[in-house]
UniProtKB/TrEMBL annotation, chain A:
Classification via InterPro entries: ChsH2_C (IPR002878), ChsH2_Znr (IPR022002), NA-bd_OB-fold (IPR012340), Thioester_dehydratase-like (IPR052513)
PANTHER family in alphabetical order: BLR3430 PROTEIN (PTHR34075)
Species of origin: Bradyrhizobium manausense
Domain annotation ChsH2 C-terminal OB-fold: ranges: 57-116
Source organism, top-level taxon: Bacteria
Alphabetized UniProt keyword annotations: DNA-binding
Name of the molecule in the record: DNA-binding protein
Domain ChsH2 rubredoxin-like zinc ribbon: 20-54
Recorded GO MF terms: DNA binding
Automatic annotation (TrEMBL), chain B:
Record-level Gene Ontology MF annotations: acetyl-CoA C-acetyltransferase activity
The protein, known as: Acetyl-CoA acetyltransferase
Keyword line: Acyltransferase, Transferase
Residues annotated as signal peptide: none
Keyword Nucleus in annotation: no
Species the sequence originates in: Bradyrhizobium manausense
Amino acid sequence: MSEARKYPAPVTNPETAAFWDAAKSGRFMIKRCTACGEAHYFPRSICPFCYSDKTVWEEASGEGTIYTYSLMRKSPTGPYAIGYVTLKEGPSVQTNFVDCDLEKLKIGQKVKVVFKPTDGAPLPFFTPV
Amino acid sequence: MTIKGKAYIAGIYEHPTRHAPDKSTAQLHAEVAKGAIEDAGISKDDVDGYFCAGDAPGGAWPMVDYLGLNTKRLRHVDSTETGGCSYIIHLGHAAEAIAAGKCSIALITLAGKPRTGAMPPRAAGAEADFESAYGATTHNAYGMCAMRHMHDYGTTSEQLAWIKVAASHHAQYNPHAMLKDVVTVEDVLNSPMISDPLHRMDCCVVSDGGGALIVTTPEIARSLKKPLVRLVGHGEAMKGPRGGKDLDLTYSAGVWSGPRAFEEAGITPKDIKYASIYDSFTITVLMQLEDLGFCRKGEGGKFVADGNLISGVGKLPFNTDGGGLCSNHPVNRGGMTKIIEAVRQLRGEAHPKVQVPNCDLAIAHGTGGLLGVRHAASTAILERV
């Protein structure tokens, strides 16, 4: 089961520390550019679309749909499903799907964020709604 | 300025080994360098440009020293690292350097031993904290592409299997191929699922080995004894999730590198007689054929089915050495062997059972990195003169 996997603690850095601080209180943050209005993930200080430095943190709904996935069956720590979730806010994020029957995942399925502990800040994962 | 016709591939060498626990990685680089230098009929002291990627132990300067290259003569180095397509990019860069007069005889080497021991991990990028925990591997990163391609275009596992079937038809004639048995679509579908929807036989082999090229000026190439093969078009490109906007894993950076190469060559995909297409997985081939314009996006499944990639049977003979799916995948990097088999075809040196008649234009195309995450692509169009 994916729950048996031990996840590495984020190293974090000054650019992304606010994301991990928010994760400790269960909040899933994205960055939005106030110049062009676009949201992006993972967070950068300079907007990757318009190069403005006017990016701000925004708490995301944590809801989205599965863009794609693949169930890895040959792994020393057991099967796990990697995929991308397209958030309600727009950006697609890489993740694992957890706390569900991995055989029943489907593209387009609605999912929500859940945090899993590490030795440092918790990591965001997604699970079917 | 163009590199069209400014550089010739005068020497090629593919290491015959597929498992080399008794050799060092640097030694394999030296063996392939020696092989390509001898194939070209030059001396190692003539080499004045050296190109290598992340597989070269220590990078360019330790390799130049270890290989005993002539440092009084060597005047151009390039260690561009773009994974499996590094060597196709090196070929283009060598042509640029030759066209600019920065070197006249370039050596490009690839070698390593992933079958003997695990390869060191890539250095982390800015994305590491946001991705590394999720266990992206080659298998599941390409699985994600295949899953979405099937969803969007109705591509099937049977269609993907035809790519492996075609590779196996070619590999039966390659005495060095790791997998020489001809397989069927059913064999592929019945092989164990590795990472949905990719079966074991959708995946390439893991092999030790390597390869090398000698790239030179038209004048020097004409003074040597090998059939003349020149680079007439080249392209390179990169693609990634770019902030997660409009994510689309059904196409690769080949949509940009391909047209750049075709435009420079002044030809279209219809003119190509033989195609070396990086086959880390069956889906890699299918997506790249679409991206390069051999068929429309979404129609790759129909294009590869029913033996269309088998030499002597279909319209587009591909990977006539058996490719990564059956022959070898040295250092988990398929770009070098793609160029080498294309040159064999243009020289008329491919196995008679798979040699394309009157092969005068060929393409060698590859990707590096992970198609489902972030990757590079490079396209080379080669012509027999």
